[in-house]
Specification:
Strand order of the largest sheet: 4-3-2-1-5
Radius of gyration: 28 Å
Order of helices and strands: HHHHHEEHEEEHH
Number of helices: 8
Mean pLDDT: 81
Largest sheet: 5 strands, antiparallel
Shape: flat
Number of strands: 5
CATH topology of the domain at 136-228: SH3 type barrels
Strand content: 5-15%
Length: 230
């Protein structure tokens, strides 16, 4: 005679329901968190710009005096218009002359000169209108032989750098840090020691930022993205 089947303990059912609830909650959090944080960040920046700009606008010129409530983003619009106007003037002959005169005054003040020149260099680096960018993603042996790291090819080595290394073609590569790719190391590497990758610079950046968790082709990282696409 067969032994009676033992019913499943109710604790397992409760545990299964809790596990499903937790999985759904975490999935929803993954979807909601980036969107919410993005909107919150934009809303915060817009409010901060409004708080800085609007006090300089005469009260009778503010739109909220006529609509009866605060309009978010008016300060941003005024800031954009003011910045565009300053840029347009600065590109002209008179604007360049005024700018040179103002910078000559700043250069006469020791502490202010250092602060201004440092901030100007940062601004020119961040906001410079240039088409230069990293050409390709690559692998270089770093920090020692046998260990490979993702890097980005910037330019070919020239002049004194190439002559000093004297090992054929030289490429300059930027080796980013994880998970913050804005910092890293500038390396000059013989081209023969560099392995070029098929993935785009954007995909390689995602791989670096995610600490190796996000591959260009998440379904099958052994295949190029085009082959694994459905």
């Amino acid at each position: 005679m067969n032994a009676p089947l033992t019913p499943e303990p109710p604790e397992r059912k409760r545990r299964g329901l809790f596990s499903g609830f937790r999985a759904s909650f975490l999935t929803g959090l993954v979807v909601i968190a980036p969107i919410s944080l993005t909107f919150w960040l934009i809303w915060t920046v817009v409010g901060w710009i409004d708080a800085v700009v609007l006090p300089f606008v005469p009260r009778q010129w503010r739109p909220d005096q006529y609509v009866g409530f605060d309009l978010k983003g008016i300060g941003v619009i005024i800031f954009l218009m003011f910045t565009v106007s300053v840029g347009w003037i600065a590109k002209g002959v008179i604007g360049r002359a005024i700018l040179r005169w103002a910078e000559s005054l700043v250069d006469g003040v020791p502490v202010v000169r250092s602060i201004y020149n440092g901030l100007k260099q940062i601004a020119e680096t961040v906001f410079a209108q240039t088409d230069t960018s990293f050409d390709k993603a690559c692998l270089v042996e770093y920090p020692r032989k046998g260990i490979w790291a993702i890097a980005f090819v910037s330019t070919s080595g020239k002049g004194e750098i190439k002559a000093g290394i004297n090992r054929g073609d030289i490429v300059s590569v930027f080796l980013p840090t994880t998970p913050n790719p804005t910092s890293g190391f500038l390396l000059f590497v013989p081209k023969a020691d560099v392995i070029m990758l098929e993935m785009t610079v954007e995909d390689a950046a995602k791989l670096v930022i995610s600490a190796g968790l996000v591959y260009p082709n998440g379904k099958d990282p052994t295949k190029p993205p085009d082959e694994g696409a459905v």
